Structure formats: structure tokens, C-alpha cells
Amino acid sequence: MQAATLEFRHVHKQYPGADKPAIADLSFRVEAGDICVLVGPSGCGKTTAMRLVNRMIDLTSGEILLDGRSVMERRPAELRREVGYAIQQIGLFPHRTIADNIATVPKLLNWDKTRTKARVEELLDLIGLDRSLGRRYPAQLSGGQRQRVGVARALAADPPLLLMDEPFGAIDPINRERLQNEFLRLQGELRKTVVFVTHDIDEAIKMGDKIAILKEGGHLAQYATPSELLMYPADKFVEDFVGADRALKRLALQRVRDIDLWKAATVRTGEDSAAAKAKLADADLPYLLLVDDRGRPKGWLSDRALSGERIVEDLRSSADPIVEMDDILRDALSDLLAADTRYGPVVDEAGAVRGILSLEAVGHALAATGGHVPTATELARESAAHDGRATADGLSSGSGSDLARS
Amino acid sequence: MSGLAVTPVLAQLSDDFFGDRQGAADRCPGNNELCPGWIVDNFTDYLNPLWEHVLLSVIPLAIGFVLATGLAMLAHRYPKLAPPFLAFVSILFTIPSIAFYLILINVTGRGFATAVVALTAYTQVLIFRNVLTGLREVPQGTVEAAQGMGMSSRQILFGVELPMALPTIFAGLRIAASSTVGIAGFAFFAGAGGLGQSIFADPRFRGNVVAASVLMILLAAALELAVLAVQRALTPWQRAVSR
Ligand SMILES: Nc1ncnc2c1ncn2[C@@H]1O[C@H](COP(=O)(O)OP(=O)(O)O)[C@@H](O)[C@H]1O
Ligand SMILES: [Mg+2]
């Protein structure tokens, strides 16, 4: 089944006996195939908003449209079988095997045995659990495996909408990160519409295509993409909620391939030295990167390597850290800092050099002006204008590390 | 409930409880001693009381289980019913069995039925409490997940809550089993026989008392084991965990 659109229209919810509404005039729209994260401090109404969708709670006024049709027109049981549901407590049935747990909704829908069995196996494969684990009971699985089963169970009848209430909230940080990545990979294939509840802004930024920040009383503070949220917080509440490091958090949103890389001057052993030197004029960094015959980085060439007619393999330093195009910018920056250097070659899937990631390029991405990334040469020229040092070497000699450390 | 205190009641209820010494003791040299040889010779005399005792235990347990489970399910569904239900079954348990029989004799007459009614009443509190506790101990998250997937409350009760409560329910059933075997020892007051009748028929003869008591203890143990076996068969996931 394909993904559904979800729309909240002026939704109010007041619990019986409560003096204030739990949800007040909530309106937003989730496009089909998007992950919408509901985030906000505890008690702000995230769970309430989510449960209004599958009618575990009924709204007081307003409308919730699933694929354009009001959920209030639907029979709750039928609606819930059509909407996947995964929660923090997981709530696996301890007395049923993993396979039976996953088959819960297909059984409610009276699927025949063959179809159910095939679906269960497909889902076990999808979440990366060995099929033999289908015969086990939940207590025999690790916490992370149980959480995966919870997601598989929610996906069993191929629902067009998936509701997830802090699904990774009770998992340790390392496994949470793994589960988040797995879920994003899964979502890349399945393209479900997902409503994902969390109180963790970092998780929201990582998981969401759109983020709805709720504040006390179920008021929508801002509904935006993660980068909009980080760049243009709507008010003080959002600004405080996303945190003082919101500029840094944007690094988690970008991948190395998303930013302007520096051009590298790559050469191979045996190449003509004069021609190699000429390449430097075109590059953003005044050093030659030696690559093998398939374009994979071997290291930075020393001056001696160029002293002959042809280039010999004489390195001043290794090529580490080698960064991949798909790396998250935050992780790539961390690699640069950990290696105590300011540059690293960027390689594609085949391992061939595509460019250079530098601290300056990262800094520019952070500045978020979206304009041109200054090259080392330009930066050097700028600094020369200030202190009269005219060489690009000024850049690296200042740091006393990176290329010169060999 | 000592034998002394009930003697007048016994006289009223029955005239054949303290009949002859069955001539048995005469053959035992030490008269009131243990006399294992006598026990072996007269073992078959205990088979009928034993069978009566089995019925006096199993039938009230079975009826009591169904009744108490039903009550507990109601109390779980409508929590306001729980306190009055619990008070009611607790009071039932405190009625001395002799008094119970005397009351019931006017309704059901002397005999097996009276004993079964009283013994069933005694099982209620033990089973009711455990079923209700078991149902209440099912984690909220599990019930919520079931609701969220579109299970009806009936499907949740029978498909999730009751199975998950089974270990607690069976724990109650085991206590009820041994307790019922014990209380059924007084069923002869109601004219329903059982091993208690054998004991009170010749309470001074140690051989007789020991033979009947040991059979009662063995019966209680056998019933507990039977309940345990059923529990293990019905809760395979519990074994899987401890493996
Ligand atoms: N079943 C309920 N009955 C009454 N009030 C409730 C109920 N569930 C939640 N609330 C109240 O509604 C508000 C929002 O709760 P909830 O949606 O659970 O918040 P969140 O998931 O963001 O922590 C809270 O003030 C909470 O106390
Ligand atoms: Mg919540």
C-alpha cells in the first residue's frame, strides 16, 4: 500500500475533567512518504496528538484527515489495523513467538496462513533478524532485537501510515543510533508516511523531514524542515529548545557531498614533474596528492618527489583522514579534528578522490550564506592583504600540524 | 477446629461416624500403635474414601476456578466491582466449615452437594485474588500496543491479558488445590465421606490416622503436581526464558 497524506486541521483535545486543553488549535500537513517528528518537552501533548490519529483518543473539535478522509468517519478497530503503531514500551506479547507477534495485524485481518508466513519472513529479513528467531519468544531476544520486532509488527500489514511514540526512547545510546540509522535506511525503501514522537531534539533533527515543535498545552511553536528550524527558529521557545549549539547541529544535517569541496591536484607515480606542478595552479590547495592507478589516495607528496623529471613515491604524510562523500559533515569534521589536520581527501564509492574537505569549507557551510566557498588560495590572498605574507603556505605553517607534520 | 469442639455437631450430623473400631485394632499387637502390617492388610478399605476425597477436591476446584475467574474478569473490566467482590469471597473463606454445612444442610440437604458448595466457596478467594492480580500485572504498554493494533477488548482479554496472567493464576490454583484437599477432610460433617471420615472413624488408632493422613498429603501433592504440569503445558514461553 502506498503512503498516505495526513493533515491536522484546527485540532483541539481536552481530556474530560481537565481545565486546560492538551492540544490547542493544532494544524499541520504531512506529505505522503515523509517522516514528521513531533517534538517538545514532556507533557506538551505529543502522545495525545499521535493517538488522536488512530482514535485511541477522540478529538474534541477540528479534523484529522488521513488521505483526505476524516478519521472520525472510520471505525476505530478498522482504522487502527490500517495504521502501524509502535511505542517505547514495545509491548510485544511475551506469550507469543516473534513470528506470531509480527503476524498480529495480518491475523486480525484474516490473512491466510501462507500469505502471513511469507510476510513474516519478509519482515524478519527486512529488519535483519535471522528467520530462525521467528520461533523464539520475546524474552529470548536482546532489547535492540525486540525494538526491531516492534517496528516489524507495526509494518506487518503494509500500513500507509506509521505512528511511532518514542520508539527508541528506552534503548542505550549506541543501539539507539544504530536503530535510527536502520530505520532511516528502511524508510528509504518503504517511503511510508511516519509520525514520530520524541522529546530529543537531536533525534528529531536526524529523523525528520519535517519537525513540529510543540509547547506546553499542545500549541504548535513551529512546523518546518530541520534546517529551517535550526536557521530560523520562530521564537525564543524554539531557539531555547533547539539549543545554543543549533549552528553546530546543522552539521548533522549535511553530508560531505552537499557542500562545495576544494579541488585537489592529483598525480600518479611516473607522471611528468613539470606537468604535475602546473596542476597546482588549478587546485585549491598547494599540495599534490598522490593516487594509485584507480585514483585512490596514497598520500601527500614531498618536495623531493618532484625534484626528478618524473614523480617518485616520496610522501610527506599519509592521506588520512580519508572522508567519504556520504559521511555526515559532523562526523567528517570530527575525523579531521581527531587526525589533527585541516584537510582530508574525499572519495566516492569506488574510493577515488573527488575533492578535498577542509576546515574552511566546513566553516563556510556553517556560516550558511549558501554562497561560494573561498579556496585556500583566496584565503591566503586575503590574509596576505592583512599581514603581507604572500604564500599559500602561510595557511598550514600557522597551524603547525597537518601536511607539515611528516 | 479441633475434634473435641465438633463432637456434639458430629453426633447431630451422623450416628455412624464413631462406630465400632472396625475390629482392626484388635489384630494389632500394640493396639493404638502404628502397625504397618495392618495398614498393608487393610489398604483397600481406604480406596473408597480416597476416591471420595479426590472428587471432593477436584470438583470444587474446577467449579471454583471457572467461577472465580469469571468474577475476577468482571472485576478487572469494571474496577468498581473489585472491592465488594474481594470482600465477599474473603468473608466466604472465614466461615468455619461446620457452620457452613449446618447452614447449607437446610438448602441442599446432607451429602456430597453440600460439601461441594462449601468447598467451592472456599476456593474463591485464593483463585479470585490471583486471577485479578495476574490481569492487573499485565504491563500497560502491552495492552496499549494491542489496542493500537486494533484488537477488541475481548480479543485483548482472552488473547493477551489472560494468557499473560496464567503464571499468577496457576500459582493461586496450586494453593487452592492443597487447601481444598485439607478442608475436604471435614466434608464428612456434611455426610460426604472422604478421608476425613476414615480418620475420625477411629482417631485414637495411630495406624488408621497415619494411613488416611498420608493419603491426604499424597493427594494434595499429586494435585499440585497436576496443576503444575498443566501450567507448564500452557505456558511454553516461561520455560523458553529460563532455558
Ligand atoms: N488519559 C488522560 N487523561 C487526562 N489527561 C491526560 C491523559 N493523557 C495525558 N493527559 C495530559 O495531557 C497532557 C499531554 O500529555 P501527553 O500527550 O502524554 O504528553 P507528551 O506525550 O508530550 O509527554 C499532559 O498534561 C497530561 O497530563
Ligand atoms: Mg508521551
Automatic annotation (TrEMBL), chain A:
Bias (Low complexity) ranges: 393-406
Entry-linked InterPro entries: AAA+_ATPase, ABC_transporter-like_ATP-bd, ABC_transporter-like_CS, CBS_dom, CBS_dom_sf, P-loop_NTPase
Claim: Cell division is one of the keywords in the record: no
Enzyme Commission number(s) from the entry: 7.6.2.9
Keyword annotations: ATP-binding, CBS domain, Nucleotide-binding, Transport
Region Disordered: start-end pairs: 381-406
Biased composition (Basic and acidic residues): 381-390
Domain named ABC transporter: residues: 6-242
PROSITE patterns tied to this protein: ABC_TRANSPORTER_1, ABC_TRANSPORTER_2, CBS
GO MF term set: ABC-type quaternary ammonium compound transporting activity; ATP binding; ATP hydrolysis activity
Domain CBS, first and last residues per copy: 316-375
Pfam families on file: ABC_tran, CBS
Family that this chain belongs to: Belongs to the ABC transporter superfamily.
Protein name: ABC-type quaternary amine transporter
Origin species: uncultured Thermoleophilia bacterium
